[in-house]
Amino acid sequence: MPLLIPMPILYSLRNCPYAMRARIGIHKAQLQIDLREVNLKQKPAEMIAASAKGTVPILVLDNEQPPPTVIDESLDVMLWALAKNDPDNLLHPFDRSALPKMLVLIRLFDHEFKTCLNAYKAAKRYREDNVTEYRLACEVYIQELESRLAATTARQPFLMSAQESLADIALLPFIRQFAKVERQWYQQSPYPKVKQWLNYYLQSAMFTKVMAKHELWVKMGE
Hints:
By secondary structure, this protein is mainly alpha-helical. Helix content is 52%, strand content 6%. The chain folds into 2 domains: 9-87, 3-Layer(aba) Sandwich (Glutaredoxin), CATH 3.40.30.10; 98-206, Up-down Bundle (Glutathione S-transferase Yfyf (Class Pi), Chain A, domain 2), CATH 1.20.1050.10. Helix 1 (17-28) links the parallel strand 1 (9-12) and strand 2 (34-37). Helix 1 (17-28) runs parallel beside helix 3 (74-84), helix 1 (17-28) packs antiparallel against helix 6 and helix 5 (131-150) crosses helix 8 (192-202).
């Protein structure tokens, strides 16, 4: 009888944008994993043992010799998954310059836009009087996406070209968060291409599957 090799384990939290992008990358790569939904207020000992950082996502890979390989950055999880299988050519292997350009855009949003987004969300949550100021700071980056999407005449444009890429699925969770801060303002905002792009994903079967609810993971015997 052949030896069964355990599936990679992904510690995740459904509404965390970083965990969301990891799950989307794995889904797009059509890889099988053991998804463990966790409560960050009661972090499983196994998760902390895998990565002392203690934040999701944490991907634990099976190695023949311990300790196992651990990937605990969401973008690295996506790159790992798509390096294994990329049926939709999200890494644009036909263009050597494409992936570096994607990574520049993703890191811009991971660092600069995410900082602005966090301030925007906090201002709205605590009903501060500078919500508009923080929103305007975010809009600088949203305008960049609107320009990118408007540059192609495709019926469904994407951020790098008329073809979907890693950049689209990596930025998706954060643009979703931006749209939820002031829903009414967003619906009336002057970004038709961004709204079209976001709706394409939010209404997709892929997003429905990735966002399916899972019971909190509990170790057998507890």
